[in-house]
Amino acid sequence: MGMGATNTIDRVAASIGAIDTVPVSFTPCMDVPSGGVLLALPALLAIGLLRHTKDFFQLKRGYYALESIFLLLAFMALSRIKTIESLRYCAPGEWGKLLGLDRIPEARTLRRKVKELTVGNTPRQWSARLCREWMEADPQSAGTLHIDGHVRVYHGQRTALPRHYVARERLCLCAETDYWVNAMDSQPFFVITKTVDPGLLHTLREDIVPRLSAEIPGQPWQQLSENPLLHRFTMVFDREGYSPDFLLEMKKERIACLTYHKYPGEDWPHDEFKRVNVPSLHGNTTELKLAERGLHLAGKIWLREIRKLSESGHQTSILATDYVSDLAPIAAALFSRWSQENFFKYMREHYSLDHLVDYNLTSLPDTTRVVNPEYRALDSQVRSKTSVLSRKLAEFGAVSLEGEIDPEKVGDYQKKKADLYEEIKKLKEEVANTKEKRKDTARHISVSALPEDDRFRALSTESRHLIDTIKMIAYRAETAMAQLLKETMSRDDDARTLLRAIYRTEADLLPDHEKGMLTIRLHHLANRTSDDAIHYLCDELNATETIFPGTNLRLFYELVSSKNP
Question: Is 497 helix (H, G, I), strand (E, B) or coil?
Fold first, then answer.
């Protein structure tokens, strides 16, 4: 039964199928490690952790209820437990107390439960339902969306995934690409995983735009016919999405796009720029020097070109097909892209975004297009030989005859020049021949046409999608709690640091079944300022009158004091 298992009767009954699940039951417990993570429960439930779970998921009869598994996975994310395997080094009985159980499942049992939950396409359907509800709850945030790719590096040996350039490591590594759709304040809505990355433009056309068009609430359908310049919603992306053709397509769909200009040309005169107060994500304003002109891009589409002048004199060019908004909100939307980059960094460091959930592999559809290995080899030869040719040309130009004219020196000079000329001539022929071969070779082929030695399988994504959705919920819950704490803290950056400390702090669990109350008594933190912030947070959480799932116990939060036993 494992360490910490005390409810032996129910465990035996569950093993023979006599009961469906064991009921949640709390007993008085003191100094429970990581008990502070229970302070996140009201936010987790409000965000939707257990919403619709019974509609999409089903577990076989056993000891652990569906709600307990989801709560455990969310608590693990908030407590910074990186993987399911990491549970082997956590006290199962202590963690069981947080769920009203004698102990949590073993790592292998939890992996099996996660596998049961990811049968079919249920995690994606559940995530899509939550995404629609998040957008409906905050239609203003859903009106302007940041879209960017995150390269998830794979260091394993089970399959040879295609290589991607990883900017943060400046290396080409085996990886998959996740395309995230976030609000301006970095709150995630959904993610799309591509084992074979077709690029941002293809993903926007085929996956993201159709979904956003169907799911974003409050689109001004009636006003579109009255105002030909009005747009339905706004997408913000980086230079990878720069394409005059794509911008024209989106304009016809009445979707505004904001991106950087890849080829901005000459700088504008500094006297065109004026100071504009641009709102920031934290509610204050920043003064920027902005200027605007109309631009007929590539002779295909008229749009707005907005430039920001930095203190160093550098000009950043923005392209916008939003024809109705003022300069300030457009600049705020694009320059707040850093929030999504910070989201990726925070999720990698604190929520183990890049860690594998399981080691299962799945086959790619035969129609999936991949880079032709033969084309890649020829392209590599062209690049290599072109690099050598450039160096030889530079060397040829650097050879000169210096000093007095001496027959012996002239002879050496002519010989060196002649040798380099022959090398250059040969290299030019090789480069031309290789380019011709590359031209006659298909750049992309289907997976079914790959040579046997170059074929690969994809990493399974269903379990990962479930865990990623739970991590999104945990991040949203942490963000909501951070917003509460910021009201009492002088520095906004300290809110998340304090929350991480709270989640690791010990707590006393005191159930009162007669009053229908579960008191969570959090231990003191390092200083009085933190305790004052926690007092405020507890008051706000108590006002929600949250019931612990599977019980009739209302949660009540407080700090321990000398008056309490």
Answer: helix
Amino acid identity at 268: W
| Mean pLDDT computed over 368-374 | 90
What pTM does this model have? 0.90
* DSSP designation for 48: T
536 domain-assigned: no
Burial (CB < 10 A; 0-12, 13-18, 19+), residue 25, is middle
> Which of residues 94, 117, 140 is at a domain's end?
117
Pairwise CA distance, residues 442 & 447, whole Å: 13
Q: Of 391, 409, 443, at which residue does a domain stop?
A: 443
Burial 187-207 (b: 16+ CB within 10 A, else e): bbbbbbbbbbbbebbebbeeb
Q: Is the backbone of residue 195 left (phi > 0), alpha (psi -120 to 50) or beta? A: alpha
73 and 186 in a single domain? The answer is no
Structural domain containing residue 51: 1-117
Q: Per DSSP, which regions of 253-320 are E strands?
A: 256-260, 274-279, 285-297, 301-309, 315-320
Reported as a single tens digit per residue, the pLDDT across 43-52 is 999 999 999 9
| Three-class DSSP category at 410 | helix
